[in-house]
Structures are given as C-alpha cells and as structure tokens.
Amino acid sequence: MSPKASVTCLRLILILCGALGAAGQTAPQLSPLTQKYVRVITPRVVLTHVRVIDGTGASAVEDQNVTLLGGKIAAIEKGADVAKADDAMVLDLHGYSVMPGIVGMHNHLFYIALPDLDAHQHYESPVLIPQMTFSAPRLYLAGGVTTMRTTGSVETYADLNLKRDIDAGKIPGPHLDVTGPYLEGTTSIFTQMPHLTSSEQVRATVDYWADMGVTSFKAYMNISRAELKAAIDEVHKRGLKITGHLCSVTFKEAAELGIDDLEHGFSTNTEFDSGKKLDVCTASDGHETLARMDPDGSEAKDLIQTLVSHHVAVTSTLPVSEGEAGPGRPPVRQQMLDAMTPQAREDFFLLRQRLAPKVEEALSWKHELAMERAFVAAGGLLLSGPDPTGSGDVLPGFGDQRGIELLVEAGFTPVQAIQIATLNGATYMGKQNEIGSIAPGKNADLIVIKGDPSRQISDIENVEIVFKDGIGYDTQKLLDSVRGRYGQY
Ligand SMILES: [Zn+2]
C-alpha cells in the first residue's frame, strides 16, 4: 500500500518543477537519471494526517500536517485536510509516520571480499575491498539514510567525486561526509590501506586529503600513540574531526590524546586484554576486555567517566556484531538477498551461520548493550551506524534500520533509538541546526514509514519515501535499480 497522492503539480511528470526555495535558494537541477527515482518534486509538499517522530527523543505526535517548502520544513501543524493547489503535492498519510532522515555514522561505500571463503569461514589473502559506488548510495537512500559518514575510505577520490555528483543532482544518494583513507599503522591485513610508518607520514596524509576535500578522518587498529596524537592534532588544525577503530591504543589513551569518537561501541577497547603491550594490538581486539568488564563495576564507570569528561562520542555498530548474540535472530529480509550478487549471497550465508557463540562472545554482546546504555545515562553522545561490509551480514540501508532495532534491544525506547541514529549524528557533525530532527526551518530530510516505529520498532523497515532537501525519493525504485548488484559494483 502506498500513500494516496493527490498530484496537483501539472508539470510534475514531464518537467522538473524548479523547487525554488523560500529564501530564493535553488535546488540542484536533477539529472534525468536521478529523476527516475524521484516520486515527489514540487516546491511545496504537504504531508497530511501523519504521525511525527521528531528525532529529539520526544514522544510521537499523532495526526500532524508537515509542510515542506523549497527544501525546508516550513510548518508542523495539527492534522487537517488540505485542498489541492497547483504548486503543491498533498499526501494523505493516515497510518504512516515520519521521522528524520537517518544520519549514518559508521557507513561505508565498499564491500569486503574474502577470496575463496568456505563453510568453515576460512578465506585466502589478500582480503580485497571493492568499491560499491553504484549500489551503496542507492541502498542507503532507499533505507532512509539522508546523511552519512563514510568512516574510512579506500578509493577516496571516487568517494569525493561521488559526493560532488550527488550534491549536483547527477546521481541519487545521501549527503556524504567523506572520510579520508584509513590512518593505519605499519601492519594491516588490508593491502589497500596506507601503512603509515611515522608521525610525519600521518601529518602529510591528513594535510593532503584535507586539501582534497575530505571532511573527516579515521585512525585504524595498528596506529601508535605518537602517530594517533599527530593525526588528532593535524585533523583538529584543519577544523575537522577524527574517529578511531582502535586496538593498539586503548580507549582511555585515545581519549586523553583528544580523539573525537570511538567506533564499534566498547568492543574495541583493549585496555584489559591479556598481554596488552603499549602501541601493539592484541589477539582478541578488545573482546576480552569487554567480556570481563562488569558494566556496573568501577572499571566501566571509570572508562565511561573518562570518555564523557573528554567529550568523546561512541559509535554503536551493533549490526556488525549481532552474530555474537547467538541463534534466534530474525529471518533474513528478502529485499537484502535481492540486492546481492549470487556470490555475495553465498558468502552472506556462509558468514551468517549462527554457530553457538563462544562464552566470551555472548558475554561481550550482553556487556556491549549494557555499556551503551550506561554511556548514554552518564551523558555520553552515542552515535549509530551499521558498518556494512562483506565480513558480516550487514548491508547498506538495511543495516542502518537494523541498528535502530538493536538499540531498542539494548534497552533504549524506540524514540531514543531513533534520536541516536538521527539527531545525535547531526550534533556530532555540528549540523544540528540544519538536519537530524523534524522542526520548522530545518532541511526537509525526513522519511515516510508505513506503520508506527514508536510502538513497534520493526516498522522502521517499511520506508516508502525518503525526502532529501524536500525531494521525495522512491524506496522501491531505488531498490529495484540495484537488484543483484551489491557485491559487484
Ligand atoms: Zn567499518
């Protein structure tokens, strides 16, 4: 079932309706290719009789009219029937909800290929990272992601050029915060990452890519404290932010060095891993520390206090470690399978085998959920992103939705989980005045969902229209366009 559309813009089908902003601001001219995926494009759009989940964590408000004008949210009023007008599209959204577009904070534009993966989950080197420049932006937008951080890039020029093409209206996709190449230390299983050997190299890398237009950075597992410090200082000099998927450096060390964000919740903190040496990654990558950390104990409180007092955000990436939760998870979504190549689908099932988790894994999953709750309760800024890769069973867009469901499993209310995946990301990026919540004056980045995710979070999977800057993209058309592509391009 689709929203009943009263199409009153006479020129709608053949001509782009201009979308001239209230303040004279002009939306980009959409290419014929992008227009293929557009369902609503009038200067004024009225969403009538819709439930509003505003992204601030406030309760949902029933039966509202939301007016979009020139790419901005113009008004939110009590629900009422609206007469047709020549310059507007009126959608009757009884039974639907709107929420802000997702701000995905651990999203990638690549796939991870594991050559010759077998049933024992063995594979051969080198692990490769093919670009998903075609399919990923469409999957993200289809799933309701209107802004995302790439959280580490492999083909950074491709990501930068993609961002320009999306912003120019040439290609459909979300707004991108392009992260520079992974700032990785001397050793790594990833041959496509820079393997940096000195603080000078780190600074030169940051400077080069900041000059090229990168807007964020990410430190990776084998970086040393000295190199991380050099990266943080250089990134901050450029007025940008840096996150880390760390291992050789512990969370507390990184917080004290001034990092802005830490990836994968609390599962990559190696502080109490056995045999932890300064500047060297451990075998358990932090799982041991998390498994033995009592979320109510003094070590956990001390860690959370250190992060909060240093204003370090934490990015929850629950979908990528959901396998640790053991059996009994929901069935695979058919739409996800449809998006993949046959090879990607085969690998997906090999990787998804829900073997009984090791005791340590089950414990670290439980502790992860509790630590995320405790971090937020202590005033920490929790962000969300799925970490879509081929090394898990997580896909762009679908994974962003799953992340919100898993935050609810962690104990957040549905509206809190939605806030974490929307306004919190915007706040981290310093864009909380433009995006991340539904309020007059903000960008018209919002998603139309059948049902009520404020009551039943799985309704978040029923996205039908995704408004980005006031233009409504059709989820089904975007998904149809990438059928059988994810994993190849
Ligand atoms: Zn990642």
Euclidean distance between termini CA atoms: 31 Å
Total beta-strand segments: 18
Number of helices: 15
Radius of gyration over C-alpha positions, nearest whole angstrom: 22 Å
Mean pLDDT: 93
Which residue ranges are poorly predicted, with pLDDT under 50 across at least 5 consecutive positions? 1-25
Question: Can you give keywords for this protein?
Answer:
alpha/beta; five-stranded parallel β-sheet; 17% strand; disordered N terminus; binds zinc ion
Describe the structure.
The structure is a single chain. By secondary structure, this protein is of the alpha/beta class. The protein has 15 helices and 18 strands. Strands 1, 2, 3, 4, 5, 6, 7, 16, 17 and 18 form a ten-stranded mixed sheet that branches. Strands 11-12-13-14-15 form a five-stranded parallel sheet. The chain has a three-stranded parallel sheet with strand order 8-9-10. Helix 12 (398-409) crosses helix 13. Mean pLDDT is 93; it is low at 1-25. Bound molecules: zinc ion (ZN). Zinc ion is lined by residues 106, 108, 151-152, 387. The site of zinc ion has 5 residues, from loops.
